[in-house]
Amino acid sequence: MRPGSRSVRPMRLFVDPPMTGAENMARDLALLAEGLPTVRLYGWKPACVSLGYAQPETDIDADACKMFGLDVVRRPTGGGAILHEEDEVTYSVVLPRTMGPPDLFGSYRFIANGVIETLSELGLASTFVEGHTGRDPLCYLREEGVSVAFEGRKISGGAQKRTKLAILQHGTILLSRRTELLARIFQVPSEKVESNIACLRDVDPELTRDDVLEAAVKGFHRAMAPLAHVAKS
Fold first, then answer.
1. Percent share of the chain, pLDDT over 70
2. Which of 22, 67, 111, 160 is deepest in the core (most CB within 10 A)?
3. What are the φ/ψ torsions at residue 30 (nearest 5 degrees)?
4. How many domains does the chain have?
5. What contacts 78, CB < 8 A, 6 or more positions away?
6. Does 54 fall in a domain?
7. Catalytic residue among 48, 65, 139, 199, which?
8. Residues facing 169 on adjacent strands
9. Stated pTM of the model
């Protein structure tokens, strides 16, 4: 039995087609309202910048977002902003508060272990990175919460929204990285982006989103079994 769980309850696994930022966030909020244990893997079309729920819009260059045809949305979860590329695999996990560890960082690790297992499926060893400070506009440059790192650079961030009954956690698995675009949107030096953010194509330039998605299904299944695969589009 998993830490903090009072009973073994099957988890639903949804693999959704790419959606707009607003559609993705509405879908996640609907799943949170249901409060049933759920893993959702999805993508974005068009590419989208998501802001943390309390993050000021001035943290990003809105003109650059328009110039490059990027969608912009506000997440219900906290943390800093992220550029979600169309080839990214994003996860959201909804857990009843009774199913995971009661402490904040423990719950982050419990859920993000799905990313650790995904990367393991791809032959990569990764670790958790934890911190309590950091106000950079870009999520991957912050030293707060629990992230997943590969060879010293972050490859997956995470953020939560908590209600009395359930937790929603968002996280990413980066396939590619447009360093200069990230630097432009988030108004940070490109060297800082390059030295702090990893992506899977740093290791294997031929890796596809389908490869990552397949690994994520297996990784989250292993990390958070039992899963019931009830829908795949």
1. 88
2. 111
3. -65, -40
4. 1
5. 52, 53, 54, 159, 160, 161
6. yes
7. 139
8. 93, 160
9. 0.90
How do residues 143-168 score in pLDDT, each as one tens digit?
666 789 998 899 998 899 999 999 99
What whole-number distance in Å separates Cα of residue 73 and Cα of residue 225? 31
Residue recorded with tokens 């396939």: 175
pLDDT in tens, 122-136: 999 999 987 655 667
Would the pLDDT of 3 be above 90? no
Q: Tell me whether residue 6 is in a domain.
A: no
Task: Please tell me the number of Cα atoms within 13 Å of 222 on its side-chain side.
Answer: 15
Query: Within a domain: residue 1?
Result: no
Please report, for the domain that includes residue 107, its CATH number. Answer: 3.30.930.10
Encoded tokens for 200? 């899977």
Q: Is residue 5 part of a domain?
A: no
Check if 48 is active-site: no
Q: Is the pLDDT of residue 5 over 80?
A: no
User: Per-residue b/e over 177-192, b at no fewer than 16 CB within 10 Å?
Assistant: beeebbbbbbebeeeb
